Amino acid sequence: MGINFRELLQFFKSADFSKAILVGVAVTVPILLGIYFDYIEIGLAICFGAFWSSPSDTSGSYRHKKIGILFSAALVVIVSFIGGYLDLPIYILIPILGALTFLLAYISVFGFRASLISFSGLLALVLSFAHELQELEVYQYALFVGLGGLWYLFLAVLRHRINPTGEIEETFQETYLLTSKFLHIRGQLIEPGLDRKKLLSELHKLQEQLMEKHEKLRETLILYRRSSGRSIYHSKKLLVLAQLVEMLETAIAKPLDYSSMEVILRKRPQFVELFQELIFRVSAQLEAVTYAGTNKKKLPQNGDLHKGLKAIAIEISELKAEPHNENLSAYLMFQNLYEYQEQQVELLKKIKWLLDDPKEDELEFIDEEYARKFIAPQDYDPKMLLSNFSFQSSIFKHALRLAVTVMIGYGIGTIFSFQNPYWILLTVIIILRPSYGLTKARSKDRIIGTLIGGAIAFVIVSLIQNTYVFAILGLGSLVVAFSMLQRNYKTAATFITLSVIFIYGILRPDIMTVIQFRILDTVIGAGLSFLATLVLWPAWGFLNMNNNLKNCLVANRNFLEEIAIFYSSKDKEPTALRLTRKKAFHETSNLSTAFQQMVQEPKSKQKKINEVYELVTLSHAFLSSLASLSSYIQNHCTTEASEGFKSAIGHIEENLQRSMDVLAHVGTRDNFSVKNLEQSFENNRSKFNTIAWDFENAIKVGEERNLQEAHLILGQLRWLFSLSGKILSMVSKIESEVSDDIGGK
């Protein structure tokens, strides 16, 4: 019960709920004032303008949010003006409607913010059929719609002034919680004999979510400093974000692959318990940080963490006290794993210290120019409109698909004399997404939500006939619906239906007919959307898998190259290394997302699904090994890079390059032998390090640190080489069928 109450409290504090309240105020006040002063048409126009401009009010950069709302307001003015003159014969209206839908949807080529502006325009276009002007001229109506957009912008700015850090704090809380879950699963994976497939799948999904949160926080914090100057608050939060990014890399890192670790852990189960206990403590403390909020007194203490580290250190020292060569691998693995966990503890302590409000002169702020390198600028070049104008572009196909579906939907609604044909169009523009999986899920949730909402509304209107009650329920349902849109679409659809029915219940006496048509229109709109993704230029996942694989391989190869450069040049700044790391994490997450979309598609379109899954798993394992190397060389003084190290890197890059050649349909230069390449790699072991693999002697001469480095570096290189070879084999296996399918399209 305590947890449920806490979650409910978090929901009421959330940005989603406050935005829903804002939208409720934005649409209600103009209507109430319009009724009071007998200018209801003006009130409705302002209400529509505010409502249509609200989609751009989403988390991210405050400056981008304001610009987005302004552009949305400008677009809905233009669309409302055009919509006022669409009283045309149906054979002329339908093609114009399709062309306008395509143009508005095509704006999405400019990225996420543009897609929100595009959605505002589509809402204005569709709902222009819902309102016939009685007193206002078309240009007057359009201007009042624009005023509604400015009214919403005013409210959004006011909300930001009242609580300027609310969204940032909420995103950080979500990031702490996701990182905590990520660490907890990492701790579970240490357990020997575990079926890791399900846990690794969960881990990949969490990694995707964390990458998204990190990107959102980077944009918000860095662009704020760029537009408003340095703020102590934002600078501190940027430091916290840096620790969270390092925590993710360190969590992904491990000293050996799981199969090798399992052999050692089975023989020494006490280490499993000790390491799990420490990892779970770090995870629990991050969760505690989540719910501490701004209350410094609730921040957890470091005592338990130090106790956990000390217990592991004692066990490792006992292993070191018996320097037999059969204990060497175990000692080196546990020591490296211990140091990874020690690093995690230090990062967590740094986060808590930063949240405890240290003095400004104690902080080393991140340079603004350096920070801006980690922001990917959105390209707004008009040439993108031309470069995407082909069936190779997913946005082009989606815009065309949406336009055709809207034309069909309006045609059906008009021919069969539906009460509100625009409800079909509204359902289509909300449900129809670029991917099959998301459209299918939204169609199902929308229909179920509408049926539930219709049933609840039927019961209520059968018992109550009071318009004031309908008004309160309609507004309340609207607020709940908007607050749930990003959390649970089925619930949102239920409350949207309730809101629409109650509002119509105030305006019209035949509310039962409204319920029937609402359900019918929703089912038709959802059905059309689902069929459109199947037959109108479908964007199946396997068609783009080639590019996703290629991008992932290129990013991982670049990350590997920067690791090699950094390892060889000890005095080099790690900026390039961290930029390529960010790109590798991003592209690996994109590959996972593409695979998840593929899984949601019809079985007949899941080409080589098992092989693709194996490739996704190999890519994550490859990134994990790269993260292990990257984390180690950045946090330890290392020896000079040997010829064996450079040669091993070359062999791994050779496998990656050959994989990319296969994906690019470039013929290989020779019929190389994988076995010969493997033998060549193993021959490098003697050249890798001149230290003898003698545990006792290394301790005597104080060189166990060098031995530890050699063990980790060589272990990771051997694993990377093995993974790159498997990637090459798997890419070769799946490419022929994927290429045939692409060629047939």
From TrEMBL:
It holds the Pfam family FUSC-like. The chain crosses the membrane at residues 20-46, 67-86, 92-109, 116-133, 139-158, 399-416, 422-439, 451-483, 489-507, 519-540. It is found in: Cell membrane. Belongs to the YccS/YhfK family. Residues 410-531 form the Integral membrane bound transporter domain. This is Membrane protein (TIGR01666 family). It comes from Zobellia amurskyensis. GO terms for cellular component: plasma membrane. Keywords: Cell membrane, Membrane, Transmembrane, Transmembrane helix.
